[in-house]
Amino acid sequence: MARAAAFPSVKSLTVFACVTASLLLGACASDGDALQTSLLDGKPKPQAEDVAQAEQASAVPKTELEKATEYWGKKFKEHPNNLEAAISYAKNLKAMGERQQALAVIQQAASVHGSDKKLASEYGRLALELDQISVAKQMLAIADDPASPDWRVISARGTISAKEGKYAEAIPLYERALMLSQEQTSVMNNLAMAYAMAGEAGKAEDILRRIEAKGGNAKSRQNLALVLGLQGKFDESKTVASQEMSATSAAADNDVLRRMVKMDKPAAAVPVSKASAKAGAAFKPAAQDAAWRDEMTVSTVTSAAPGQPPLKGMSP
Question: Please, where are the H alpha helices in the chain?
């Protein structure tokens, strides 16, 4: 039977962060924006023959996302001062992985539209993805409107606090975002890990089990396995981890947790699975202001169904 263990010290939490993949934040994580397929209000949609001609010009048919990006890029070039065109183009660029180009578009729009809250929201969350923490903090403070709260903005502000190692400040922000988002899974996961890093593994476990009851996902199960291990529930941790990785990797990571909790020897000398080792190489302690990225879950971007008009915009 697994030995009950006290929650690890601050020192061991740093080790924990350095050897696990699940506390890392996905650079392209979804913040829950629904895909929107409408174009600018009152603006004509591209004609079918225009799309057909564009596809014929390329040997490889364009995806819906590529069509959307091309469409909004043209609109932005024609109307660079149009806020909706700028935001939609930037969102699609970001979905294409062109975050620096998206940032340039947002910055150009900001020079015209100043402190528009919708623009500040996009600017702040994109800056956060790019680890421009001071810019993100400034923009998200502008975007956070108490009269019309946006859970994505509030959650992003929580992530800034978490990146700074201020978990006690991050928790109430995540809790507020969770209430507004009607229990968005990504926010639940972030809240759980903020609790874990604040030394409240029991609360983290409760939240992660709620995610599991809703169907769960690979990232939340990995986090649950880690939180269980931190509490000394090693057998259960291994069982949960085995759902998302090979038995060998699960056993290796479980061994890391056992040794870390017992502190029998430095965890840095303990072999870890390839996935954990790769993640650990990219992870730095919170004190170095680069511990976390944007969100603690990773999801894919889904384009519009064939035949639908170009996507209006997609957020990370």
Answer: 10-19, 48-56, 64-78, 83-95, 99-113, 117-129, 133-143, 151-163, 167-180, 185-197, 201-213, 218-230, 234-241, 247-262, 274-281
Cα separation, 161 vs 155, whole angstroms:
10
- CA 312, CA 88: separation in Å to the nearest integer? 6
Q: Quote the Cα angle for 225-170-127, to 5°.
A: 100
Contact criterion met (CB below 8 Å) for 313 and 88: yes
**Which residues, listed in sequence order, are joined to residue 295 by a DSSP beta bridge?**
26
Is the distance from CB of 196 to CB of 230 less than 8 angstroms? yes
- Which residue in the block uniquely carries the two structure tokens 């800034």? 160
User: If we measure between CA atoms, which residue out of 195, 246, 200, 262 comes closest to residue 2?
Assistant: 262
Give the global pTM. Answer: 0.68
Query: Which tokens in the block code for residue 169?
Result: 């400040």
Residue 251 CA to residue 201 CA, distance in Å, equals: 21
pLDDT tens track of the chain, all 316 residues? 444 444 554 444 544 443 333 343 433 344 544 322 223 333 434 444 444 444 454 455 789 999 999 999 999 999 999 999 999 999 999 999 999 999 999 999 999 998 899 999 999 999 999 999 999 999 999 999 999 999 999 999 999 999 999 999 999 999 999 999 999 999 999 999 999 999 999 999 999 999 999 998 999 999 999 999 989 999 998 898 888 777 777 777 777 767 666 653 444 433 444 444 443 333 333 332 333 333 333 222 223 334 433 334 433 3
Name the maximum alpha-carbon separation found in the chain: 70
SS3 of residue 313 by DSSP: strand
Copy the structure tokens of residue 293.
């990225």
Among 200, 221, 201, 203, residue whose Cα is nearest residue 212: 221
| CA 131/CA 112 separation, integer angstroms | 24
